[in-house]
Specification:
It contains ten helices and 17 strands. It has about 350 residues and is an alpha/beta fold. Strands 1-2-4-5-10-13-14-17 form an eight-stranded parallel β-barrel, surrounded by five helices. A four-stranded antiparallel beta sheet has the order 6-7-16-15. α1 links the parallel β1 and β2. α3 crosses α4, α4 runs parallel beside α5 and α8 runs parallel beside α9. The chain binds manganese (II) ion (MN).
C-alpha cells in the first residue's frame, strides 16, 4: 500500500508537493475544483453562502493536468487521482437537466484528458446536496478544529445550487426540483453506462465516494450510499473493472448501520477500491464528530490489516484531519495523520 496526500486546488504548489514527499508520501490526490470561488457580485441573497462553480465551457485540459503531474513528479510524487468534478461540468447529469447530453460529452473528453495526462483515477461524488449539514469548530482533542454533525433538519437546496455550489445564479427563486432516491440511482447508472466505456479505453478508474454525511436525506434531497449495503448496490451497477469506490473509512464508520471492518473486508476482497480516505470519527450519523486519526471509534490498524490481507495495493490519503493550534494548522494536522499512517504501514 502507498501513502498519499490530498491537495486542494489552492494547495497545488511546489512547497506542498515537497511537504508531502517529506512526510513519506509517494502519491498525491489532487483537486481541480475551486471550492472557495466567491459568489459574483449581485448574486441573490439566498445564494450568498454558496461558492461559485467553475466555467461550464472549460473542462480541465491535458496541458493543465500534465502540468500538475509534472509539478508532482518534480518532487518525486505520482498523481494517483483527481478528486471531484466541478458542478459546472455535471450539474445537469446530477439533476437530469436540459444540458445533460453536452455535459456527458464534456465528461467523456475530461476522462480522455486524464488518460492522456497519465492520471489513472477520477474520484467523484454523485450527490445533490454534497457535504452539507456539518459544523466546523473546536470539536477534536484539545480543541483541534474539526467537523461535526449534530442535527437532523437542514434547509432545502436553493434552485441554481447543486453539490453545495452555485452553478446557475440566475435560477430560481425557490428550491432544487425534488426527486426520489430511485430516480437518482437511475441517473447514476446512466452516467456510468456512458462514461465507463470511455474510462476503460482511457485507462482511468472511476471511484465513487459515499454520502458524507451518510444520512438517507439531506436538504430535502435523497442520498444513495449512506449505509454499507448500498456499496454493493453501487458496485452491482457495472461489472467494469474501472468501476470502483473511493472508500472513505470515516464516512463508513459514521453510517448508522453496519460495521466498518466488514465493509472494508467486502470491498477490498472484491477488488473494488480505487483509493482510500483513511480517517477516524466518533459517533454515528446524525450525531458524530471527526477526530484525530488515533482518537476515534475506529481501530485504524485493524482496517489496514484487512486491506493488507485482501491484497489492496493502492493509495491511502488522510482525507480531512483536525486543524492544530500553530502557525500552520492544516500542515500540522496532515503531518500528524501522515506520520501515524506511515507508522501503521511500516508495521502492518
Ligand atoms: Mn472522504
Amino acid at each position: 500500500m502507498k501513502l498519499g496526500l490530498g491537495l486542494n486546488r489552492h494547495r497545488l504548489t511546489p512547497e506542498n508537493f515537497r511537504f508531502a514527499a517529506q512526510a513519506g508520501c509517494t502519491h498525491v490526490v489532487v483537486h481541480c475544483v475551486d471550492y472557495a470561488r466567491a459568489p459574483a457580485p449581485g448574486v441573490p441573497e439566498r445564494l450568498r453562502g454558496y461558492a461559485m462553480a467553475g466555467n461550464p465551457a472549460e473542462i480541465w485540459s491535458v496541458a493543465e493536468l500534465s502540468a500538475i503531474r509534472r509539478q508532482a513528479e518534480a518532487e518525486g510524487l505520482m498523481v494517483a487521482a483527481v478528486e471531484n468534478l466541478d458542478p459546472a461540468h455535471w450539474s445537469d447529469v446530477l439533476l437530469d437537466g436540459p444540458r445533460r447530453a453536452p455535459q456527458i460529452a464534456k465528461l467523456k473528453a475530461l476522462v480522455r484528458n486524464l488518460g492522456t495526462a497519465g492520471i489513472p483515477c477520477l474520484g467523484y461524488y454523485f450527490s445533490l446536496a454534497g457535504t452539507a449539514g456539518r459544523l466546523e469548530g473546536p470539536f477534536a482533542r484539545g480543541g483541534g478544529i474539526s467537523l461535526k454533525m449534530d442535527q437532523t433538519a437542514t434547509n432545502p437546496v436553493p434552485a441554481g445550487v447543486v453539490w453545495n455550489m452555485t452553478y446557475d445564479p440566475a435560477a430560481g427563486p425557490g428550491f432544487q426540483y425534488a426527486t426520489s432516491a430511485e430516480a437518482l440511482w437511475d441517473r447514476l447508472r446512466c452516467f456510468l453506462d456512458e462514461i465507463l466505456p470511455v474510462a476503460e479505453e482511457a485507462g482511468v478508474t472511476l471511484a465513487a465516494h459515499p454520502d458524507d454525511p451518510p444520512v438517507p436525506e439531506l436538504q430535502s434531497t435523497p442520498r444513495l450510499v449512506y449505509r454499507p449495503e448500498a456499496y454493493q448496490r453501487l458496485i452491482d451497477l457495472s461489472p467494469s473493472p474501472r468501476h470502483c469506490v473511493e472508500f472513505c473509512v470515516g464516512t463508513t464508520a459514521e453510517m448508522a448501520e453496519g460495521d466498518v471492518y466488514e465493509t472494508t473486508d467486502r470491498l477490498s476482497r472484491a477488488g473494488r477500491i480505487g483509493y482510500v480516505h483513511f480517517r477516524n470519527v466518533r459517533g454515528k450519523a446524525p450525531h458524530y464528530c471527526e477526530t484525530f486519526i488515533d482518537d476515534g471509534d475506529v481501530d485504524m490498524a485493524r482496517v489496514l490489516g484487512i486491506l493488507k490481507r485482501n491484497g489492496f495495493n493502492g493509495v491511502l490519503i488522510p482525507d480531512h484531519a483536525p486543524l492544530m493550534s500553530c502557525d500552520a494548522p492544516w500542515h500540522a494536522g496532515m503531518a500528524f495523520a501522515l506520520g501515524y499512517m506511515r507508522a501503521l504501514l511500516q508495521k502492518v
